[in-house]
Design a protein that fits this description.
Layout: E1 9-11, E2 17-22, H1 47-61, E3 77-84, E4 91-92, E5 95-103, E6 109-116, E7 121-143, E8 146-174, E9 177-198, H2 206-218, H3 220-249, H4 252-255
Antiparallel strand pairs: 1-2, 2-3, 3-5, 4-7, 5-7, 6-7, 7-8, 8-9
Amino acid sequence: SVYSCSLFWRATVQSCVSSVVFPVKKIDEFAFSASTFQKCNRKEPDFDECVLTAAQGGLAQLTHPVKEISFSGLEPVEILELKIEAGHQTVAVDQNFKNCKLYGLSKTRLSKFRFDFDRNGVDVAGFIPEIKKVCEYELDGKVLLLPIKGEGTSTVILRDINSTLTTSFEETKKDGETYMKFKNTKFAFDPGFVSFNFENLFNGDKELGDNINKVLNDNWQDVFQDVKSGYEQALSLVAEGIINQFFTKLSAEDVFD
């Protein structure tokens, strides 16, 4: 999805992720409204189960463009710029990506989606069969002590992902209704498999490029572990942007009885 606001949505953090920038895009389609979202009663004993069902259903609806909340759908999520800084052991290279597309988030199978109104927090857990990240990349550094340099198209695929998300929210009143703004979102995940493909390494030297890609894939666990926190922070920003775009337009009264 492209995050659509009047301005570019920019978020920065201090450590592994330098920046994530989402583009502006006009949304012409309409696939969702408050009336199509399952409402849940906070006072009912099955509230948590209802929220989980509603969230899974809402996720399916957000696969498509949503004019009402200026959201162009989860397939794909588009990111203009993404920078993941060098790791501390095997990955001694800053990863600069642009014009990224993330595929697969809409396939998330939620196992928990719990609102805690006493502490203004939300806890989420789920399984994602696959996330595919396709970006233009620029690299110049070392991985596993081997030089890596180039620019072109990159594809990173993560499979069998167990994930959790925690976030907190503040409530504000507007026109007599309550709106929630989410912050401090933390997305954590463990993939069962990761593959890398960087095209046009070393100015298109196929033999060198194939060798480096093979080394990356043969050692994917060590390589990914070193930059995992950067990917987690990037996806935390993506998730927070999606949640806030949803709840900017829909009040608590729209989704809860």
